[in-house]
Request: fold
Amino acid sequence: MNQQQPQNPQNGGGAGGGGPLTGAREFTEWADRLSNVEELVDQNAWRNQIAQVRDRARAARSEYKRYGKKPQWDLVNTQILKPLYEVRNRIADELSRRESNESLAPIDRDPVPSQFSDLVRRYYETLGKD
Reply:
């Protein structure tokens, strides 16, 4: 997956001029796309992180519209962009793991049968001692 960082948000965040936080119509489209991603993600932690990012972006957008106050770009980077990159990277890792033909362990591996769980636990404890 492409690890490229976006253009400097202070310069509008890209070619559209203004970006989602300060642009005229970009926020609604951006928030809708982010909402779609949130619905598709099956991990609750990731879904919650995306929702938090959307809420923070909405608050920054509201401040901009209400008071004409430009976003604090250092906070945008730490509270919006960085969490989105983290989720994106985790999703990319998970997709790679699921699509890999060279997987070391099957994804749908059955749990240890209950009659052997104590033996397996002791086995791993013994391995960890050496």
Summary: Helices lie at 19-22, 26-40, 44-67, 73-99, 114-129. The chain has one domain: 9-100.
